[in-house]
Amino acid sequence: MVEKDTPADGNMADATPTAVQSPAAPSSSQYSKHIVLTTYPGQSGIDPVPLSWGAKDAQARGPVIVSRSNALLKRRNAMGAHGGSYSIYNALAIAAGDLEPDFRPDFRNSEPTFNFAWQAAWADKTKIVSMDPYGHDIVNQFREQLDAGWDIRPTMAVTRANMKLAEIGEAVRDGKLDVDGTIVVNSGGDVRVTKVAVEPVWYLPGVADRFGVDEGTLRRTLFEHTGGSYPELITRPDLKVFLPPIGGLTVYIFGPPERVSDENVKLALRIHDECNGSDVFQSDICTCRPYLAFGIREAIREAQNGGSGVVIYFRKEGRALGEVIKYLVYNARKRGGDTADKYFTRTENIAGVRDMRFQALMPDILHWLGIKKIDRMLSMSNMKHDAIVQSGIPIIERVPIPEDMIPDDSRVEIDAKINAGYFTTGRQYTTEELAEVRGRGWEKWEDITH
Ligand SMILES: [Zn+2]
Q1: pLDDT, tens digit, 9 for 90 and up, residues 13-22
Q2: Dmax over Cα atoms in the chain, in whole Å?
Q3: Could you tell me which residue ranges the GTP cyclohydrolase II domain spans (predicted)?
Q4: Which residues surround the ion ligand 1 when the cut-off is CB under 5 Å?
């Protein structure tokens, strides 16, 4: 043993990081026999690289370092791991021997296709708490440290693409969208888009603030309910930044990206939370894909009119409850008489709550983009509306999904939401009427399976 063994009892003032003998030492020699379970402030050699969230620029703020490799274990200034939920696949690749544990990426030519202008919010620790505002510009901002071998990774990337959506092709054919040659590039409905991918980087005091809890409660809850996976949430109160193992978001920008932050032109925005079954596979039990397609069409139209169109896609599958819970709820709905008056109760019975998306962190990306007002908000959700307005961005007009885009079987979902206070310019149903809004049963399916 190289390091002195120390008990994990918190009394670590002058000890080395908490280490135990590995119960199942890897057959390869890529790790030492000591496993460092956690660290403590004031321990020998613990010296986090300064990280001052909300500082005036990237240099003053400092790089986010989560790596535990070699000397960085004592110098890391953030908890968790890069890649969000994909951090586990990274570990698998190392376990399988496909990837060296100390691999350092070669970032040549990976820089953004568009340089987003610095915004005052990037230096405001209350406006951005759930992403690293310099996460796209690591190579540029921390070149010296990267050259010195520090493991610093981008948590954002900016690229461009052509996209093709069936509904956009139809809109072009039906004369509802023009071919302008730069945004909609041809009669097939090919669309040029700038994309920004963002992985979550949480500044814990700011996240706690948004949820109205104290930081200690947030840390303890995150620790307990990730199976104790991140002990430094408890032992390192000096570390304020956490990269959680969850999905991030993607921004789709139609038209010139510099227009997004231009107050003098109109902005159309859709905030869309993932629904794989509808978004990709077009299951008709909800309005997700139709609303997404409508949002994209309106965003393109705004850009064609000289404004800007933005669609932001959050990886929050099934109201952030996940697909397993979503399908359990579908079954409970279909077997229990699928009526709109019972829509939310069915979810609460199984998940305990009706929604875990918590829009409180969502507006961060809007502030990062420099959005100052939203002319057309392509959403009926009050949670999204209120979170954006409370964060200081006014919404001028709210645009519900057109009636003719709502699939028959999804009336249960949309009417229940409208009754619960979702914004609509159309009719709001009473509770009695909701009991009459009924989804399709499984009768035909039973015929097939019997
Ligand atoms: Zn859906």
Answers
A1: 444 556 666 5
A2: 74
A3: 266-400
A4: 275, 278, 286, 288
